[in-house]
UniProtKB/TrEMBL annotation:
NCBIfam families: nth (TIGR01083). Keywords: 4Fe-4S, DNA damage, DNA repair, DNA-binding, Endonuclease, Glycosidase, Hydrolase, Iron, Iron-sulfur, Lyase, Metal-binding, Nuclease. Binds 1 [4Fe-4S] cluster. It holds the Pfam family EndIII_4Fe-2S. This is Endonuclease III. It comes from Undibacterium rivi. Belongs to the Nth/MutY family. SMART domains: ENDO3c (SM00478), FES (SM00525). Residues 38-185 form the HhH-GPD domain. One of its GO terms (molecular function) is endonuclease activity. The gene is nth. The lineage of its organism: Bacteria, Pseudomonadati, Pseudomonadota, Betaproteobacteria, Burkholderiales. [4Fe-4S] cluster binds at residues 187, 194, 197, 203. Its EC number is 4.2.99.18. DNA repair enzyme that has both DNA N-glycosylase activity and AP-lyase activity. The DNA N-glycosylase activity releases various damaged pyrimidines from DNA by cleaving the N-glycosidic bond, leaving an AP (apurinic/apyrimidinic) site. The AP-lyase activity cleaves the phosphodiester bond 3' to the AP site by a beta-elimination, leaving a 3'-terminal unsaturated sugar and a product with a terminal 5'-phosphate. It comes from the Bacteria.
């Protein structure tokens, strides 16, 4: 895909949604961090249901740490991998309290040193909480980048590198959210809704899905 096509794609995505953001519900960088940590292999809807209850009771490192693993589990047990996530959340809260004055660090190195926080989570927090032009590559972004030809790659690291190189600078801050939403609602995994896609004429996916027959 050439630069002109990429620019046209992001121009359309921006026009359709000028101020995209995460669908995770949060009010502070700490709430966002915990929500993203919980969202691995889980839907934003399920995480939001859990955090609404949790944050009403505890929404600071001190308050969640005071719950302990056993006290946290009842709030998040509807989310996949909840036992491991509970341990990571409590350990992360402890590190934030002891090493970061209960504040979410802004650097990638410090974020990735927190239990359960990998590169993708760090990218989301840096972008959404702190306004850094990072691009977190999840399954949706990986699929859209490869299928459309925007930034094809064999793994998430290669796709991230290509997106950071190829996405025009003026779109880089919001590219993460546009691509996730596009993959979540239009360029879905099994049968992409090509017939209802605003960038179908620019996309390089050859087996486009036709308009389904009306029943």
């Amino acid at each position: 895909m050439n630069a002109e096509k990429r620019h046209a794609i992001f121009t359309r995505l921006q026009k359709e949604n000028p101020h995209p953001t995460t669908e995770l519900e949060y009010k502070t960088p700490f709430e966002l961090l915990i929500a993203v940590l919980l969202s691995a292999q889980a839907t934003d809807v399920s995480v939001n249901k859990a955090t609404r209850l949790l944050y009403a009771v505890a929404n600071t490192p001190e308050a969640i740490y005071a719950l302990g693993v056993d006290g946290l589990i009842p709030y998040i047990q509807t989310i996949g991998l909840f036992r491991t996530k509970a341990k990571n959340v409590i350990a992360t809260c402890h590190l934030l309290m002891t090493e970061h004055h209960s504040e979410v660090p802004r650097s990638r190195e410090a974020l990735e040193a927190l239990p359960g926080v990998g590169r993708k989570t760090a990218n989301v927090v840096m972008n959404t909480a702190f306004g850094e032009p990072t691009i977190a590559v999840d399954t949706h972004i990986f699929r859209v980048s490869n299928r459309t030809g925007i930034a094809p790659g064999k793994n998430v690291d290669i796709v991230e590198q290509k997106l950071m190189k190829f996405v025009p600078k003026e779109f880089r801050q919001d590219a993460h959210h546009w691509l996730i939403l596009h993959g979540r609602y239009t360029c879905i995994a099994r049968k992409p809704k090509c017939w209802n896609c605003m960038i179908a004429d620019l996309c390089e996916y050859k087996q486009k899905t036709p308009l389904p027959d009306k029943v």
